[in-house]
Amino acid sequence: MEKTKKESQYARSLIEASLDPLITISTEGKITDMNQATVDVTGVSREALTGTDFFDYFTEPEKARDVYREVFEKGFITDYPLTIIDHKLTDVLFNGSVYKDETGKVMGAVVVSRDITQQKRFETELIEAKVFAELATGIAEEAKNKAEIATQIAKDAMMSKQQFLSNMSHEIRTPMNAIIGFTKVMLKTELSAKQKEYLTAIKLSGDALIVLINDILDLAKVDAGKMTFEQIRFKMALSISAMLHLFEAKIQEKNLELVKEYDTNIPEVLVGDPVRLHQIILNLMSNAVKFTSKGRITVSLRLLHEDEENATIEFTIADTGIGIMDSKTEKIFENFQQASSTTSRLFGGTGLGLAISKQLVEQQGGSIWVKSKVGEGSVFGFVLDFKKTSDKSELEQVSLEQVMEPLRIKVLVVEDMALNQLLMKTLLDDFGFELDIADNGRIAIEKMQTNSYDIILMDLHMPEMNGFETTEYIRNQLHSKIPIIALTADVTTVDLAKCKEVGMNDYIAKPVDERLLYSKIAGLVIKPTLPIINEGNQGNEVAKLKCTDLGYLIQRTKNNSGLIMEMISAYLEQTPPLISSMKQNLQDEDWSALYATVHKMIPSFSIMGINADFESMAKKVQDYARAQQQSEGIIDLVLQLENVCVQACEELEEEFHRIKNAQG
Fold it and tell me: Is residue 136 part of a domain?
């Protein structure tokens, strides 16, 4: 008896030790016993629970009934989810099994419920977090897509803007090309004073329109980040004098005084972009002259700083004009801004000049500023850095009369507009060139298959077959390497990049400058003659190929033997030291010195008629030097340059003595 009692107490202690609700149910589903945890969860006393239906304490009685059926049918149940009806609706998982008497008869079932409320909460939070994460990802993806769409729209807008400016440029420049071109032609003829005055006025108006077009297109290039700057040698003093000379007539007409202040410490020859420098000064000088009715304009250049490689120069243009209000000086460099609303009406202009000047200065790493007082005048200044060079070789351009010797050249002009055809005919006739005209690319290709030409002048925008398509066909289908110069009214980078891509050799902007046109044609057509094989050699050995051709030098000097000898002498004097320097620079891996040395050698290749392949080799060496890269090929290139220059010296020395002996 005592033993049974102890066993009963032990069983009860085990039941009560469970922190999870535990109940026993009869085969009829009545609660027969429970532990304290069940009382605590349900909030119902033991007495009240005993004998009640198991199903009544759950939010879903039918599911509880299924638990009851399953445990008695299968003998056990595992992880069956239910929710107990209590003050907080506790979520549980039921696990249970039947229990039997000594004879094996099923007496009832023991069911334990595991509280999973916290687990369910974690699951819910996890699901919510996942949903929110997916939602956030969706929002981010949507934002990314919108950003990509906005970027594409911006790109398309920029492309549309560029295309519009390209088309506008072409449409305006085409008639302007004819107007200015024929005006220049007419000004060369016999005219009365009054006719010359009228034609000069027409030309000036045309030039003014071209300036306006250039302003708008330059602004577009700046906005697109496609403004490029050259790095070429030029003489600062001569460059500034030439620029100021353009304003002398207008300054005298307005009875103004022009004062020039030039710092003689400024190096004679500098490296930079003289064209962009001219553009900046042109804009600032134009404003000074425009807004000054009496007094003086002072142009000053001062050396601010100098080291071994660079020179920093300050440019100032001061006037005694109308001045600018303090409230306007901060905005004066913005697009389309002028000093007042009446400025455009009284003085003209678009308000783009200063904006473009600011961009040109700042994109070269410089700064620009203005000081002004109403009624007393303005001072515009800017500071730019220029690289220094020790190369003081002649830089002046040869005059048109010096270079425009009669050349037997046949030109194919591909142009659809009758006015431009007539203008090109007039210019090329003046050069003494033979020409043929094609109205479009298709006709040009037909003419090339039955005629021979030395060069093609190709308009870009034509009906049926435009200049790009025609050039591609000539290069890829006809496999012709004939030089092609694009005639383009579009000076933006949009078409120029495509010109290079399809295989054009060069371009010239409309209105066409006759000196530049002649120079480009001559430069592409006049090539060194091919090496000649000496058929008189015994054993059919090939003679050493001649690497120089003085045809170009003879043409440029008008066959002046004295000048030719002087040029040859200069080459013979400068070349051997350059060869030695080039080899030493390579050995020392002094890349900047190697670049500078080869740079000095390159101009002589074309002057002495050395094959253009060697000029390409020299530029390849410069590319390696610029990248400061030791390449296996650079040694071979330097050796080839040395060999051709040594051979050129030998040939030119022989030519020098031949000319000298011929003179007696």
Answer: no
